[in-house]
Write a structure and sequence with these properties.
This protein is an alpha/beta fold. Helices cover about 45% and strands about 15% of the residues. The protein has helices at about 10-20, 30-40, 60-65, 80-90, 130-140, 160-175, 180-205, 225-235, 245-255, and strands spanning about 50-55, 75-80, 95-100, 115-120, 145-150, 255-260, 270-275. A 7-stranded mixed sheet has the order 3-2-1-4-5-7-6. It starts with 7 loop residues before the first helix and ends with a strand.
Length: about 280
């Protein structure tokens, strides 16, 4: 497969990640909870009956498995053969087809899709705006597209951004190590940072405290398995970009989307746009 607008090291890393963490050990209630957060702004009532759409960067297939039940057909697309193998197992028996392709080589007809989404993927490609344009091209006029891109902590205080910069230095070192070592280090980070801080945030919240600005408070109700997965995602990924809300809105607009809205809560930033006519 010829990879266009994809970082080969990141593709390989995510293939290894989903093979290691296929998400089958995550409680279904937790998957449903995270799914509801991502899709809280998705206009389910507006898409047609038997809608056809795409999941770009389907990874383990955990979201594909839930979306497919609500639509006519779902195209699961990923640049990693390992990820697709996991997604096939996850979404087995559903109305999905699976495609080994990068964002700019999707084997879908232009203007053919009733909806699309890409969650946690396009901040790992070299040209995010070009990727958004490629997604827009596959959609029918007016069709919705949901995207989740890592935020640049534009709604956080200075000290929070400073902590991230420190962690990013560690990521630049860890992501270049062999996968087995990266995975072990990520497990240690999950155990020594994610779990204690998340559980502390949960304790503070149960006593009436506001934990919105508390580092890693997002994980306070999530499983250790999810923490391990996300620690590897965060520290083991070769290419990572982050965007401010206004930057995402501008990219979506230039890529051919309008009626752009954002989810106001975490995870930041989830945005929805409709392909312009």
């Amino acid at each position: 497969m010829h990879i266009r607008n994809a970082d080969a090291a990141s593709v390989k890393g995510f293939g290894n990640e989903w093979a290691r963490f296929d998400q089958r050990a995550v409680p279904q209630a937790e998957i449903n909870e995270i799914f509801a957060e991502y899709f809280s702004i998705f206009p389910w009532p507006e898409i047609p009956a038997n809608a056809q759409g795409f999941d770009l960067g389907c990874g383990s297939g955990r979201w594909s498995n839930l979306v497919a039940r609500r639509v006519g057909h779902l195209h699961c697309i990923d640049a990693s053969i390992q990820a697709l193998e996991v997604a096939r197992r996850t979404a087995e028996g559903t109305n999905c087809s699976f495609h080994l392709a990068s964002v700019e080589s999707m084997p879908l007809g232009d203007g053919s899709q009733d909806f699309g989404y890409s969650l946690g993927v396009l901040h790992h490609v070299p040209d995010t705006e070009a990727a958004l344009r490629a997604c827009a091209l596959k959609l029918k006029l007016g069709a919705p597209f949901l995207v989740y891109l890592y935020y640049a902590f534009d709604n956080r205080p200075f000290w929070f951004r400073a902590l991230w910069h420190v962690s990013n230095v560690a990521r630049h070192v860890i992501c270049r190590l062999p996968f087995a070592i990266r995975a072990r280090i990520a497990d240690c980070i999950a155990a020594l940072l994610y779990w204690p801080l998340a559980r502390l945030a949960r304790l503070v919240e149960t006593r009436g405290g506001n934990v919105r600005a508390f580092p890693l408070s997002y994980y306070r109700t999530l499983s250790f398995y999810t923490m391990r997965t996300d620690a590897l995602d965060r520290f083991g990924t070769h290419l990572e970009k982050r965007f401010k809300r206004r930057e995402i809105a501008a990219m979506l607009s230039r890529a051919g989307f309008h009626r752009i809205v954002f989810r106001e809560g975490p995870p930041y930033w989830c945005a929805l746009g409709n392909r312009m006519g």
